[in-house]
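user: Kindly work through both lines:
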Amino acid sequence: MTSHDNPLHGLKYSLLDLAVVSQGDTYSDTFEKCRTLAQKAEALGYSRFWLSEHHNMQHVASSATSVLIGNIAEHTKSIRVGSGGIMLPNHSPLAVAEQFGTLSTLYPDRIDLGLGRAPGTDGATAMALRKNNYDLNYNFEAHIEELQKYLSAENRFSNVRAFPGEGIDIPLWILGSSMESAVLAGKMGLPYAFAAHFAPAQFYRAIELYRHYFEPSDYLSEPYVLACVNVIGADTDDEANYLATSLYQAFTGIITNTRRPLMPPVDDMDEVWSGDVREAVMQMTAFTFVGNKETLQHHFKEFAKATKVNEIMAISQIFSQEAKLRSFEIFASVFNE
């Protein structure tokens, strides 16, 4: 088999991290682990390291997302760093243009700006973030266009301008987990990142719609799909399945509203979840790839053939930092043969 027969040939591989706090860790510990992980990803040839905006979640430390992006960029040299994503309803487009214009000035040609429509939190917190600007009929497209205007060189004739930001080429992405985001990304001619790691049900239909509605733009000449999936890699399948129980415990907490730090793996998940909860977790984590290098390679080849995605982004909720770093080593090796 030549490299051109390999469906993984030419695919980019990237990493999403939520700065999840593990049991026994402080926020400082969590940020240090983020930096170490980004440096490891850079050494392993990962294309990007993205962080996601969340609020009012005690065990997710990525609330000040642009600040954390800057810290990661400062401690790396070449890997692209960005947002997966910034939840645009929580911010004014002008403020986002200024923040990411500043980041891109400090770290030229290394900053990505992924944009999401969801609040990344509960309703009460969303209202606290937005104060008098809370709008149930939020116009995502209009705010993306406003952000594009502030970042454009043409905006120099406007009364309201972004400094720094104006005229800086900052790649914009639309993030989503639904049909609406797919159609919007296609019509706007922007790259599309789908959150298959927690919302798998509409993935295939969404990327089909994105490609169908795609219109070439000044930003992108043809569709570009990034799929974010859960990945738990280890030296053996048994070890990987054991490590994956931390991920399943995290999703169990989401479903039962019993949030905890990321917990150590357990020998028997049946002692943690009920049958109904297990079924719900399995549905939410349908795009979870668990196993050793050979197992992951087999499954990702099938995934790449079926989806024809351009890039695969891994998120790995693994309790042990050492095991997490090893998992990302194994994931990188899947693409590098």
Summary: The mean pLDDT is 95. The longest helix spans residues 237-256. The beta strands are 12-17, 48-51, 80-87, 111-116, 172-176, 192-194, 225-233, 288-291, 311-315. The first strand starts at residue 12 and ends at 17.
